[in-house]
Amino acid sequence: MCYEVASSIVDAMSTVTAPRTQSPAPARPRPRLDWRLRFGALSLIWGFSFLLIKVGTEGYAPFQVTLGRLVFGTAVLAATMAVKRERLPRGARVWGHMAVAAFFLNALPFSLFAYSELTIPSTLAGICNATSPLWGMALSLVALSEDRPTRVRFAGLGLGFLGVLTVLGAWQGFHGLDATGTAMALSASLSYPIGWIYVRRTLAGTGNSHLAMTGAQLLLATVQLAVVTPLFTSLPTHFSFVPLLAIAALGALGTGLAVLIQYGLVAEVGPTTAQMVTYFIPVIATAAGVAILGESLRWTTPVGAVIVLAGAALTQVKRKA
Questions:
Q1: 251: pLDDT strictly greater than 60
Q2: Which of the 8 DSSP states describes residue 172?
């Protein structure tokens, strides 16, 4: 998931107005592990996620990869909620909005990335994921009236999409790329900001903890995939161990543990610093795909990725007060 989008979701879900008579909260104990180490771990986990998706699809259908990912991720959050004695949110309205959020933030993009990697390299999927901040800014201009654009952010938007065209080799007629797979990966990155905007407009200030909200969201996404997967796939005739291990790691680490690390970083260092992980994910995804999977790399891929990340960084520049 794009970290800028994820950080905003955290802010939206956990916005609670405390009563004036409430006593100050006790000071939180200092984390045992330095935030820089957790930052690096999160970069590696999310960077390797695209490699794990590719390995998972070598043994199982894309919907099965996504369902397994959600099952293992939900199990991690459920265990954490049990330890912390967190309860799931209440109210039909909240659950209805969370079902929509689960679709756009989990079920749809996870499935699209899994299907895209049937025909495109994991390196390209990782770079497509980095376009989420670009889509987010473009959509926020229309959907969020309070998000006022600046010339710098507009320049970043244009630069970012120029980078996408560079990655795809537009002047060469997109030679050697699978159009359908690439479109799926870009659509997956578009799905995240759609979900983020929906969350901001419908779930801000619900009073529930971010852990409870995200646990419920993953649970709903799991149910959605559990309904859809049997309709489009059949049970595997045999269980491939390595792809299954990749799916387990993708869910437990890339979806469950990563969310917990993410929330801790946002709470400790703030979203501005924490979202810098966005710029490491495509680099790690590219390095992993080339070094471990032996994927080929054209010069347009790293050059275009740098342009995309520069544009994404400019779209995050806030207007000075």
A1: yes
A2: G
Q: Which residue do the tokens 């390196």 mark?
A: 123
* Residues with Cβ within 8 Å of residue 8, at least 6 apart in sequence: 196, 200, 271
pLDDT digits (tens, 9 = 90+) for 168-203: 776 665 566 788 999 999 999 999 999 988 998 888
Residues in the chain: 321
Banded pLDDT at 16 (limits 50, 70, 90) = very low
- Max alpha carbon distance in the chain (Å)? 65
User: CB of 39 within 8 A of CB of 265?
Assistant: yes
Find out whether 63 and 232 touch, Cβ atoms under 8 Å. yes
What is d(CA 105, CA 195) in angstroms, rounded to the nearest whole number? 5
Q: Is 228 exposed, middle or buried (0-12, 13-18, 19+ CB in 10 A)?
A: middle
Query: Residues 41, 264: contact at Cβ < 8 Å?
Result: no
* Nearest CA among 275, 225, 277 for reference residue 247: 225
Q: List the structure tokens of 237.
A: 């005739």
pTM score, whole prediction: 0.84
The whole-angstrom separation of Cα 143 and Cα 146 is 9
